[in-house]
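Hi C.,

You asked whether I'd gotten around to modeling the 66-residue construct. I have! Everything is below, sequence then structure, no commentary in between.
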Amino acid sequence: MSIPPAEPRAGGRVIRSVVYDADVIERRVAALGREITLAYPDGELVVIGLLKGSFIFLADLVRAIA
């Protein structure tokens, strides 16, 4: 059994498994964008990220909101 290589983007740690791949995340973000668009059809929406690094997710989410 070979040990997988360390992943530099994970601080040099070994990634043993991927729970959600990029396609699954992309589809879910698009679905959330559609839900938010339907929930706020005429009003302004303020989106705030509270966690460190959340701006990456929020950028994708805001682009998915019509």
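If it helps when you're writing up: The two ends are 48 Å apart (CA to CA).

Thanks,
B.
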